[in-house]
Write a sequence for this structure.
């Protein structure tokens, strides 16, 4: 009877052990996979994030160019108005001895002040443009390296990466592939891309970067019996490139800003002390229009006619200011640096 | 019958019961472990397939082949299943004053097309209550694609199926793959009447303004503009030249309104090209930056190159804008 006791224990022991071993193997495999995906996500985030050095600089440059262009356009129209009133043209009262806001001399005083104010802003715009657009691509790459070091240092915070990994920048080079196209423009038409071949200088070439996130991962389970799980490396490898996230054109005086519910650049009346029309007829000889203001009977704008496929044609009919540009961001691409070695191009944590 | 005889039978029942329960538990645990093992392989395979395809490895056969050694138990015959990008809200109404084919603006946008990869695996050697087990897995990754390409030349809604079925690759299929650029088309009226003319001009001509702020093929060149910023031979050199000339002309506007004379300093058409009192700048020089009259261009390979703007007049060595 006593011999019958315990006969299920070996079965329990064997079965439980087998199940545990299988479970351990599955969990170990799962842990490896989880680390690999984690490494990939860490590398993806770092690669795309580091390109902000270039894309931010370019976005700021474009904003500064736009501000300066808009100011020069305004100055040119104010200058034209100044010459008109000096010449006694356009409807202002040129009679000597007359007074009031419609006299050429009163308009001259207003226009002169607007010119000086605009010139001050324009000068500041050019100074800002100089500072923003000055850094070269080699400077950008240095800043990317510094940013990646900071990303490592700030790991675990909102400004840093996953603390489990070492981040290495293994490549940063201009995207001189055969697909980069060019942009042409003159007084009356522009072409963006259109199967042209771009050959910008290096400082204006989009960057490709490649980042490796690597960690030495301890095994999920300690050694047991003669089985010793090995430490392994979780390596995430990711590349990204700078690309235009939006591409757009707009007559800034025609499109309505959804925040203010009025056009981005409304008509201006620099000849008036109150920025309102002096004459009936909306001061069409002096008014500054930025985009046709199609709701204005005196200026029906310059709408673009689409071909429905690849572009637009314009038949300018009125004053207006069209800007065509785009905003930059980064996008993931496949790694491009070939075979890499631990300790040479990258290191593991 | 002794007590020992009675105990014999009960041990057999206990053993049978315990053994059956134990085996069921063990086999169940093994079954779950095996299922977990293969589920993780499926999850990994779909993750890396979706991720690799989304980042540009678009040869499906090669991708399946490359991933096979990593997930040896998975039948690697996945194919991508593109889904719509996340809904966007482009609040600017480009057709407020016109219509789709007659409008004042347009935009194309880069969005992550949701790329789905799915895979399944039948575990024929396992069963629950006589039914075989099938594992399924799926993963979604964002593939950067351009919607409403070419500034929305198509004129389709941003979240429409027409937009979703016409997405293009930004690097190889669309005009988004260009260097940074900024270009303008700007116009103002010029009156050709002899001054002084009154409220109505009989010969108004539209003038294309030659602004100094642009970034395009003209100033991309390493040869002509090797430097950055606004200094000599720099990308935005012309902008700084215009600023200097327009600043010089501030001296042309004294507090008291000057008088006009034909061919004098305030005659932009017939006046001097250089006025020493204004550091050599003149109105004639500034107006030489423009094109008048505006001429249209259609369907030519030279679109955008036919009428080079004279924006650098006055910017050369020894000139007022230098």
């Amino acid at each position: 009877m006593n011999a019958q006791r315990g006969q299920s224990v070996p079965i329990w022991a064997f079965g439980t052990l087998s199940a545990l071993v299988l479970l351990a193997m599955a969990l170990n495999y799962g842990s490896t996979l989880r680390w690999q995906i984690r490494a990939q996500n860490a590398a993806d985030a770092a690669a795309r994030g580091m390109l902000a050095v270039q894309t931010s600089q370019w976005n700021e440059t474009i904003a500064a160019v736009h501000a300066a262009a808009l100011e020069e356009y305004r100055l040119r129209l104010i200058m034209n108005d100044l010459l008109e009133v000096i010449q006694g043209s356009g409807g202002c009262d040129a009679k000597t001895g007359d007074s009031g806001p419609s006299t050429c001399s009163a308009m001259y005083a207003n226009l002169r002040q607007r010119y000086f104010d605009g010139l001050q802003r324009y000068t500041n715009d050019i100074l800002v443009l100089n500072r923003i657009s000055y850094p070269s691509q080699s400077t950008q790459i240095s800043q990317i390296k510094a940013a990646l070091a900071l990303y490592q240092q700030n790991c675990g915070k909102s400004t840093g990466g996953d603390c489990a990994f070492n981040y290495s920048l293994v490549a940063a080079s201009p995207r001189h592939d055969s697909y980069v196209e060019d942009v042409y423009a003159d007084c009356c038409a522009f072409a963006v891309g259109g199967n042209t071949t771009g050959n910008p200088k290096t400082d204006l070439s989009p960057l490709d970067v490649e980042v490796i996130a690597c960690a030495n991962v301890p095994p999920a389970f300690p050694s047991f019996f003669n089985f010793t799980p090995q430490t392994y490396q979780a390596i995430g490898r990711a590349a990204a490139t700078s690309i235009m996230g939006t591409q757009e054109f707009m007559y800034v005086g025609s499109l309505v800003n959804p925040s203010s519910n009025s056009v981005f650049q409304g008509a201006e009346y620099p000849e008036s002390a109150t920025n309102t029309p002096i004459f009936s007829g909306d001061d069409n000889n002096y008014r500054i229009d930025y985009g046709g203001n199609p709701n204005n009977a005196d200026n029906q704008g310059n709408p673009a006619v689409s071909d429905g496929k690849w572009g637009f044609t314009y038949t300018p009919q009125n004053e207006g200011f069209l800007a065509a540009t785009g905003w930059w961001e980064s996008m993931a691409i496949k790694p491009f640096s070939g075979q890499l070695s631990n300790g040479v191009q990258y290191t593991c944590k | 019958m002794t007590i020992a005889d009675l105990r014999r039978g009960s041990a057999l029942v206990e053993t049978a019961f315990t053994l059956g329960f134990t085996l069921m538990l063990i086999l169940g645990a093994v079954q779950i472990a095996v299922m977990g093992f293969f589920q993780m392989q499926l999850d990994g395979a779909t993750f890396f397939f979706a991720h690799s395809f989304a980042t540009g490895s678009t040869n499906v056969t090669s991708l399946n082949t490359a991933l096979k050694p990593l997930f040896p138990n998975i039948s690697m015959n996945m194919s991508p299943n593109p889904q719509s990008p996340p809904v966007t809200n482009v609040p600017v109404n480009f057709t407020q004053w016109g219509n789709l084919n007659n409008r004042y603006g347009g935009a194309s946008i880069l969005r992550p097309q949701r790329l789905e990869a799915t895979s399944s695996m039948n575990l024929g050697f396992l069963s629950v209550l006589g039914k075989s087990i099938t594992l399924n897995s799926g993963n979604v990754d964002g593939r950067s694609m351009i919607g409403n390409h070419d500034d929305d030349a198509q004129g389709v809604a941003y979240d429409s199926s027409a937009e979703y079925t016409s997405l293009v690759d930004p690097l190889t299929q669309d005009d988004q793959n260009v260097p940074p650029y900024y270009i303008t088309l700007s116009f103002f009226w010029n009156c050709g009447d002899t001054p002084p003319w009154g409220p109505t001009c009989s010969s108004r001509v539209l003038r294309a303004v030659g602004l100094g702020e642009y970034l395009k093929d003209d100033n991309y060149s390493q040869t002509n503009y090797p430097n950055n910023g606004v200094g000599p031979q720099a990308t935005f050199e012309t902008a700084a030249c215009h600023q200097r000339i327009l600043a010089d002309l501030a001296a042309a506007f004294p507090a008291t309104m000057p008088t006009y004379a034909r061919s004098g300093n305030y005659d932009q058409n017939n006046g001097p090209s250089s006025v020493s009192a204004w550091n050599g700048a003149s109105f004639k020089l500034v107006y030489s930056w423009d094109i008048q009259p505006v001429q249209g261009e259609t369907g030519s390979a030279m679109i955008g190159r036919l009428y080079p703007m004279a924006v650098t007049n006055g910017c050369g060595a020894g000139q007022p804008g230098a």
Remarks:
- The first strand of chain A starts at residue 166 and ends at 174.
